[in-house]
């Protein structure tokens, strides 16, 4: 099989991404235009602004990806684009652009599920380093929009996914973002909490996770396969209660203003505006989140007797999660793989990589491709 180069396009949320990937493995370019500055004043992604920013960025980002790969439109073999899940307006920008490119260049178009993209981000690097993976692989996709566990299987060029757990309410990244916003730390919250947590005492505040509160939640009904669901809205409310009980609101208002004045705060700026109690709170919150993610993921690995674990999505960039999960997995005889931190968050290289097996299988889409904001990945055994 000669080398195949795929131009991937990703616009599902607040990053405009374009990348050229050779044969599903080798990243020739991976350009991401972040919209963080646009959404920061609102403390979260504003869908209309996201669409507008994608419109502005898509052409320069695609051109840059081709230039960095030393390619032109004619020399790529296929165009791949994220079909969903994501924000409808944001997805439509990438899809319209990709369809126009594929049509005018007479190249095949491949539609990719964003979640499958996150899973393939791990593979992208993994395939370069080692050959054999033990299937099925357990994949934890943990991001701002998702906390999902899949069993992934590969047969030749065909990948199949089975969902064995998902969040019942907030995604883990959403909980990081909401808690950071609540504490006046701005958006996105995950990277800030990640940086601040090592400076606090993770045992200072005891938070209960859904697992402890609802021990029956994951117990199967008779005849059903067990599920490994998550729930993170409770911990966010618990942080809010703590803030209220401890009278932290005035300090939070002052912190928010101070950080806004600073513009682009550095790690030192964040540390300067956080007192000991806030650092302890942040560390305790992160520890609880990670303990829950690790416990449920490894329980699922044990139940399904898997030996390979992929962890991907924005929250997979978290240092404490990477260290804790790797250590705990090893003790259980499971090999845990993470993408590099840059490939953990949204990017188009993962979309081009996930498109490669579909390209080989000639799984192409036509001009009637439309955005699927609620697109699911694979099937489930029980609801
Ligand atoms: O995968 P991603 O870029 O976009 C979605 O598909 O959602 O994930 C973004 C999410 C945000 O919630 C962000 O706060 C979180 O990932 N995140 C992190 C870290 N970096 C990004 N959460 C914890 N620690 C991090 N280092
Ligand atoms: Zn994502």
Give an overview in words.
The chain is α/β, with parallel strands linked by helices and 383 residues long. The chain folds into 2 domains: 5-130 and 343-380, Nucleotidyltransferase, domain 5; 140-341, ATPase, nucleotide binding domain (Nucleotidyltransferase, domain 5, 2-Layer Sandwich), CATH 3.30.420.40. The protein has 14 helices and 11 strands. It has helices spanning 36-39, 47-68, 88-105, 114-129, 172-182, 189-196, 210-213, 233-245, 249-262, 267-272, 276-303, 319-331, 341-344, 349-360, and strands spanning 5-10, 15-22, 26-34, 78-84, 109-113, 137-142, 147-155, 158-166, 308-312, 335-337, 379-380. Strands 10-9-6-7-8-11 form a 6-stranded mixed sheet, with helices on both faces. Strand 4 (78-84), helix 3 and strand 5 (109-113) form a beta-alpha-beta unit. The relative contact order is 0.18. The structure holds 5'-O-[(R)-(carboxyoxy)(hydroxy)phosphoryl]adenosine and zinc ion (ZN). Residues 114, 118, 143, 313, 346 line the site of zinc ion.
């Amino acid at each position: 099989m000669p080398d195949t180069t795929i131009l991937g396009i990703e616009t599902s949320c607040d990053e405009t991404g374009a990348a050229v990937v050779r044969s599903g493995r080798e990243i020739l370019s991976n350009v991401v235009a972040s919209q963080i500055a646009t959404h920061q004043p609102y403390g979260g992604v504003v869908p209309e602004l996201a669409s507008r920013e994608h419109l502005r960025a898509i052409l320069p980002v695609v051109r840059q990806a081709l230039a960095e790969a030393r390619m032109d439109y004619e020399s790529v073999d296929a165009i791949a684009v994220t079909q969903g899940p994501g924000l409808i307006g944001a997805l439509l920008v990438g899809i319209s652009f990709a369809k126009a490119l594929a049509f005018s260049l007479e190249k095949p178009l491949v539609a990719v599920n964003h979640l499958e993209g996150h899973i393939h981000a791990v593979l992208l690097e993994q395939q370069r380093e080692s050959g054999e993976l033990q299937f099925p692989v357990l994949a934890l996709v943990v991001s701002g929009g998702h906390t999902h566990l899949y069993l992934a299987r590969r047969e030749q060029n065909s990948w199949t996914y089975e969902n064995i757990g998902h969040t019942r309410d907030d995604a883990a990244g959403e909980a990081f973002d909401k808690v950071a916003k609540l504490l006046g730390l701005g958006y996105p919250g995950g990277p800030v909490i990640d940086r601040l947590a090592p400076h606090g005492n993770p045992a200072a505040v005891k938070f209960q996770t859904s697992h402890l509160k609802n021990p029956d939640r994951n117990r199967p009904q008779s005849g059903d396969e067990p599920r490994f669901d998550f729930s993170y809205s409770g911990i966010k409310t618990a942080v809010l209660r703590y803030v209220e009980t401890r009278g932290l609101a005035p300090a939070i208002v002052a912190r928010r203003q101070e950080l806004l004045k600073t513009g682009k705060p550095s790690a030192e700026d964040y540390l300067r505006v956080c007192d000991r109690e806030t650092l302890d709170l942040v560390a305790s919150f992160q520890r609880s989140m990670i303990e829950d993610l690790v416990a449920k993921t490894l329980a699922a690995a044990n139940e399904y007797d898997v030996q390979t674990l992929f962890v991907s999505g924005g929250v997979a960039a978290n240092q404490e999660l990477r260290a804790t999960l790797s250590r705990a997995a090893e003790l259980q005889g499971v090999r845990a793989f993470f993408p590099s931190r840059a490939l953990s968050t949204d990017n188009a290289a993962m979309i081009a990589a996930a498109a490669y097996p579909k390209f080989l299988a000639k799984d192409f889409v036509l001009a009637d491709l439309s955005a699927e904001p609620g697109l699911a990945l694979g099937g489930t055994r029980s609801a």
